[in-house]
Amino acid sequence: VAGAAALLVQANPGLTPNLVKAILMYSAQPLQGANTFEQGAGLLNVEGAVRIASLIQPNPPALANGAGMLTGPLPDVQVTTIAGETCYWGQGVITNYCFLYGSALVTSWQGIYSQNALISDGTVVVNGVLVTDRGLVSGGVLNSAGPVTSSGAVLSDGVVLADGVVLSDGVVLSDGVVLSDGVVLSDGVILSDGVVLADRAVLGDYGSSMLPVRLELSLTANRIFRR
Length: 227
Hints:
Elements: H1 2-11, H2 17-26, H3 36-39, H4 46-55, E1 79-82, E2 85-88, E3 92-94, E4 99-101, H5 104-107, E5 123-126, E6 129-132, E7 142-143, H6 211-226
Antiparallel strand pairs: 1-2, 3-4, 4-7, 5-6
Helix pairs in contact: 1-4, 2-4
């Protein structure tokens, strides 16, 4: 992605960081059967992103919100063909709560692409309703709202907590990647397999007087294993 961003700036040095990010998301290829949590905006499409960047005016930050930004038209069908595969552009940009979508995201300058803004500033909650900030987002740009669907088209509130991406799905804790799977302790690589203690048959080679010691060590290892 860093290399793709560099190619966009090489194609058009006037792009702002937010505009580079938006172009990469807009041109990304969405995956069927994967939701937004799993794929974000989709698969990186460098060819499509560079094509868009090359069409944008040299100094887009000088434009007003909603002003035309391109020097030529977008393709009628917004796709990229790579090695015989048709890669459709997702035509959306992720904000803090949802997706913005529509070709106006790349045909018109959006205030959220400026140096003193964030893309996430484009959506706000007014009286409990998720809407676009018309001072930063032009007409022709729509926003999604609601729960995540199997196509990954929309996002809901509570992305961090209520949908359990961080906590309730157990990505950090309940899957036990560190502790409960026993990677460090319960598989007993060091203690419970008895590699160091219970297999010390060499002790018994010194005569029957050493057998009780060997038996005690074996019992100790078994107790550790049960724990």
